Amino acid sequence: MTKKRVLSGVQPTGNLHIGNYLGAIRNWVELQYNYDNFFCVVDLHAITVPHNPATLAQDTYTIAALYLACGIDLNYSTIFVQSHVSAHSELAWLLNCVTPLNWLERMIQFKEKAIKQGDNVSVGLLDYPVLMAADILLYDADQVPVGEDQKQHLELTRNIAIAVNHKYGNEKNPIFKIPEPLIRKEGARIMSLSDGSKKMSKSDPSELSRINLLDTPDDIRKKIKKCKTDPIMGLNFADDRPECNNLLGLYGIFTGKSQEEVTTECSDMGWGKFKPLLTEATITALTPIQAKYQEIMTEKSYLDSVLKEGKEKAESVASITLKRVKDALGYLTIKN
Ligand code: AQP
Fold first, then answer.
1. Is 56 within 8 Å of 94 (Cβ atoms)?
2. Which residue numbers are catalytic?
3. 14: alpha, beta or left, given left = phi > 0 and alpha = psi -120 to 50?
4. Which partner for 9 in 42, 88, 103, 314 could form a disulfide, CB atoms 3.0-4.6 Å apart?
5. Does any ligand 1 atom lie closer than 6 A to the CB of residue 212?
6. Per-residue 3-state assignment (H helix, E strand, C coil) for 119-165
7. Residue 293 and residue 69: Cα distance in Å, rounded?
8. What is d(CA 266, CA 53) in angstroms, rounded to the nearest whole number?
9. d(CA 265, ligand 1 centre) in Å
10. Contact assessment for residue 236 and residue 229, using Cβ atoms and an 8 Å cutoff
11. 43-76 b/e with 16+ CB inside 10 Å = b?
12. Across the strands, what pairs with 199?
């Protein structure tokens, strides 16, 4: 039986934080043995907000190395860079022409990021979800493992695919496969350390709001020591305690303990006793990833070979889908 296909990606912007890891990459690693997987570094997405050309290439290497360091196994998964496969840009253009503008104007992430950017919002930022749809649909992905914040974009991808199938395909021969989001409950939305009601985010101006995958043990100690808590005695999961929910949740994920186990262990604790436990659990979880990352980054030629092979595999799949779409839209092909 052929395996179902998975596609996902992370942008090479800023430092990857534990939200990106727990909401996305950790799930890719766990799922990879049961699926046929494509994981890309989405560098075309990275320029939808102001970016630094001097660091883009290095940041792209960093993300690819982190995929490997977190446990992506090349025997089961393909790692590639989005801009190395030109079909992503080409399909995005074709999809742009069938996507109603008001579908994009409704996207929550666009509205939030547009507010932060003021007058300098690019067309690319508005168009981001169409490029994301192209990324997913090119690979006939069955499942897309992402954090909760990407749910709306996934819904849009499905709507675009359904619209194209309806307009240019037929029921027996749909042009696109309709993908499903794969959002795991645990870790789907890791919250900011400075405000438990806000998502942990790369673009938060405060470094203290997030723990990065490559933070040193001292950074982690400092950030957890300073993180926001509440004045209630005893620790428990409760809807009206966002910081407590987030920190206990992190502790559970990093120690592999269930919500019940964490509740039993921590219900009589104060923050002074809990924070060092969370700190050690976080350091213990991140240390092996960091060691592997350092090892991989000393071998750029190895990384280049991984990305070259990834580009070839990705292109061989993407070119077939792109041809299918162009044929359906009526484009001229010249026979050899
Ligand atoms: N806080 C989070 N909790 C769980 N999952 C999260 N993801 C992002 N933040 C959280 C998931 O990480 C993946 C990477 O997405 P991306 O590269 O598009 O991330 P981003 O938008 O650059 O990162 P941020 O932190 O979300 O940046 P801001 O907020 O600045 O835009 C995705 O699967 C995402 O769901």
1. no
2. 113, 199, 202
3. left
4. 42
5. no
6. HHCCHHHHHHHHHHHHHHHCCCCCEEECCHHHHHHHHHHHHHHHHHH
7. 5
8. 46
9. 30
10. no
11. bbbbbbbebeeeeeeebbbbbbbbbbbbbbeeee
12. 191
Which residues in the chain come in under a pLDDT of 70? none
Computed over its alpha carbons, how large is the radius of gyration of the chain?
Answer: 21
Mention every residue, 6+ apart, whose C-beta is less than 8 A from residue 93. Answer: none
Q: Tell me, what's the pLDDT at 161?
A: 98
Distance CA 320, CA 78 (A): 17
Rounded distance between C-alpha atoms, residue 221 and residue 244, angstroms: 17
What is the reported pTM?
Answer: 0.94
pLDDT of residue 29: 96
**How far is Cα 174 from Cα 121, in angstroms, rounded to an integer?**
35
Report which DSSP code applies to 3.
Answer: P
The residues, ordered by sequence, that sit 6+ positions from 61 with a Cβ below 8 Å of its Cβ are 297, 300, 303
| Residues 289, 270: Cα–Cα separation, whole Å | 30
Q: Terminus-to-terminus CA distance in the chain, angstroms?
A: 35
Residues in Cβ contact with 263 at an 8 Å cutoff, skipping those fewer than 6 apart: 236, 237, 248
CB 189 within 8 A of CB 199: yes
Q: How far is the CA of 19 from the centre of ligand 1 (A)?
A: 7
CB 51, CB 286: distance < 8 Å: no
Nearest partner of 321 among 172, 165, 153, 97, judged by Cα = 165
Residue 45: closest CA among 126, 114, 119? 126
Predicted pLDDT of residue 147: 85
